[in-house]
Write a structure and sequence with these properties.
Elements lengths: L1 H11 L2 H16 L7 H27 L1 H4 L3 H7 L4 H30 L8 H26 L5 H29 L7 H27 L1
Helix pairs in contact: 1-6, 2-3, 2-6, 3-6, 3-7, 3-8, 6-7, 6-9, 7-8, 7-9, 8-9
Length: 216
């Protein structure tokens, strides 16, 4: 599943391009509301980044099962002699790669347009973004599979996903703000632990329950 998604995206280059363009557009629009400079950017940049990541991810999750909906491909995958949990992990990894690339472009654009350097806190910011993205992708992948079988899938996915992903967004915003401000890691350690706990819990649950998600 993971290799197949990468090959399909390499041939079409549609999903990743759409995610990157949308992410850049959000950063550009917020450029008119946030003043440049370190102190000003620190007030709203963490929330801006994670809101941008969230909506960019929605685009990717909606399209992640688009190909499988055509020609009963999803039913064929269910009949394959493969653990459904492995199908979930493969789809999750491909979504993680796509969203990670889009996030990198968004962060680079934000650093240019807001005149803000992420380098002093790059290591902390990288691991916080990684943990938050893993949790968000774990949620988005399983709810993307659920929404794929509904008529209003583009509307149902954010409605289903955002309430569950709130801990990821809260933990990501708080930890990112603390890291970018240069606060002591202990001051935002609770947010990092929240991200880790959410990642482990949701990946394990989704792996075990993905078979029933596909059947529904």
């Amino acid at each position: 599943m993971f290799v197949k998604d990468l090959r399909v995206e390499w041939r079409n280059r549609e999903t990743l391009a759409l995610m990157c363009v949308f992410g850049l557009l959000v950063v550009f629009l917020f450029n008119f509301t946030l003043e440049t400079g370190r102190e000003e950017a620190l007030r709203g940049l963490p929330a801006l980044l994670w809101v941008d990541f969230a909506f960019v991810g929605i685009l990717g999750f909606n399209r992640s099962f688009a190909a499988e909906r055509e020609n009963a491909c999803l039913e064929g995958l269910m009949l394959a002699p493969v653990d459904p949990g492995l199908l979930y992990l493969g789809k999750m990894l491909s979504n993680l790669v796509f969203l990670g690339v889009a996030e990198g472009i968004v962060v680079f654009a934000a650093s240019l347009w807001y005149n803000f350097s992420f380098l002093p806190a790059f290591r902390s910011f990288f691991w916080i973004a990684f943990l938050g993205t893993v949790g968000y992708v774990a949620v988005g992948t399983v709810f993307g599979a659920i929404a794929a079988n509904t008529r209003m899938r583009e509307v149902m996915l954010p409605v289903l996903q955002f309430p569950v992903a709130v801990p990821v967004l809260i933990g990501g915003i708080e930890a990112t703000g603390g890291a970018l401000r240069g606060d002591a890691p202990s001051s935002y350690a609770w947010a990092v632990r929240l991200l880790v706990a959410f990642d482990v819990a949701f990946i394990v649950l989704s792996y075990l329950l993905f078979e029933y998600v596909l059947e529904e």
